[in-house]
Amino acid sequence: MKAITFSEYGSPEKVLTLKNVPKPTPGENEVLVNVRASAINDYDWCVVRGMPRIYRLMFGLFKPKQQIPGMELAGVIESVGKNVTSFKIGDEVFGDLSNYGFGTFAEYVCINEKALVLKPKEMTFEEAATIPHASLLAVQGLIEVGKIKHGMDILINGAGGGVGNFALNIAKLYNAKVTGVDTGNKLVTMRSMGFDQVIDYKKKDFTKSGTTYDLILDAKTNKSTFDYLRVLKENGKYVTVGGQLLSLVQVLLFKKLISIFSTKRVEIVSLKTNKNLEYINKLFLSGHIKPIIDGPYRLEDVPKMIQYFGEAKHTGKIIISINN
After folding, report:
1. Residue 149 class from Cβ within 10 Å (0-12 exposed, 13-18 middle, 19+ buried)?
2. How far apart are CA 207 and CA 80, in angstroms?
3. Cα–Cα distance between 101 and 82 in angstroms, integer?
4. What is the pLDDT of residues 64-90, one digit of tens each?
5. Pairing verdict, β 177-182 and 153-157
6. Which stretches within the chain are classed as H helix?
7. Please, is 29 exposed, middle or buried when counting C-beta atoms within 10 Å of its C-beta (0-12, 13-18, 19+)?
8. pTM of the full structure
């Protein structure tokens, strides 16, 4: 089978190559999936470069343990292990594999059956591949952790990516007024998506604008925790779903202290993979969410598209079409 592989850390376009590798065989609790679509995530940008270096404690200290990157897929079950009970051959599935393994930038992958759920027939493989990671960060960030309420003033930082699109769709179910922060060509798409206001971070720093918000959902986390506190209303909440490591550490360090001396709160989402996908499926089928796809691109395009992701040039989710 064809797969994108790497054996050393470095620039995606230098270390990633398209190779023919052996087709895997499922274990007792695994399924073999014919991968139809995958998506590029921050994980791929970090693991391929081995940066920040602290991540190498997980990825491999001197060279990567996992030589085929990729963590989201949509595809078709081709064979099943003898203990598998959730799926049968021919089932269309999708999911975030990261709790059980990686390797979705390939024509086939073997994975524990618990990493997948059934895909609605009405959803294309490319649409399905946009959903598991980004949509659940939005759901868990806004609903479970953010405790969103009707009519809130909400700001989404890094709103032009995959999380921002789903977060906007969900916030509008609560009649929220939503401001999105990003830059470049993303701003045009964000206006068409329905953001009430868009801010170009290259022209305006929202943390110094004087405008305050009930809830901030942050997909970038590129400022000081105290900058975010300044633009929260009383009893407001700041929720980060990812971003720069040092800024995330700062949120962790000051979270408890802030809760003692202020009515404002700061939180970090620890993603529960594939939880709430049934809820997202219902929103998709009712037309309340619509994925924004950048692409789809081919499997051989993965190296340059990971670089494209790292330079934050994408809008929505970057999708790789495989075996279609």
Report:
1. exposed
2. 51
3. 20
4. 998 999 999 999 999 999 999 999 999
5. parallel
6. 12-15, 42-49, 56-59, 125-130, 132-139, 162-172, 186-193, 225-230, 245-261, 277-285, 302-310
7. middle
8. 0.94
